[in-house]
Design brief:
Layout lengths: L2 H4 E7 L9 H13 L3 E6 L7 H10 L4 E6 L6 H17 L4 E4 L7 H13 L2
Parallel strand pairs: 1-2, 1-3, 3-4
């Protein structure tokens, strides 16, 4: 197995009762899949599926050995600070051989902040 077949990325978003809410996240996922052959998927905290637990289980079942969870949140609140670490701890207990980590939230990244600032200025 090559590294691209054993490494996965999960975009972790909040979720919503409105099914249209997931469309931009699916678009990001498709762009990721076009750029890389490594496994990638979406997961949601609430109201939508798959849950983070389901997404991790699916990747492990597919032979993924290392997963990075990317919180697709603009700001770090209790979901990123408390809920996500609790979910990751539970996944580590369930899958002790899995290398599981989370990146910083996307809103903390300078490139994302610059892109939003440029978009906001262009929207005038």
């Amino acid at each position: 197995m090559s590294i691209s077949t054993t490494v996965g990325t999960i975009l972790f978003a909040h979720g919503s009762r409105d099914p249209q809410w997931r469309v931009p996240f699916e678009s990001i996922l498709k762009k990721m899949q076009a750029l890389s052959h490594s496994s990638s998927s979406l997961a949601f905290l609430e109201c939508m599926t798959p849950t983070l637990e389901q997404a991790i289980d699916d990747m492990v079942s597919a032979g993924i050995k290392q997963i990075t969870v990317v919180p697709v949140f603009l700001a770090v609140g209790s979901h990123v600070r408390k809920d996500l670490p609790n979910l990751l701890a539970a996944a580590r207990l369930k899958h002790p051989d899995l290398a599981l980590q989370a990146s910083a939230a996307i809103g903390e990244q300078p490139a994302i902040q610059e892109a939003i600032a440029a978009f906001a200025l262009a929207a005038r």
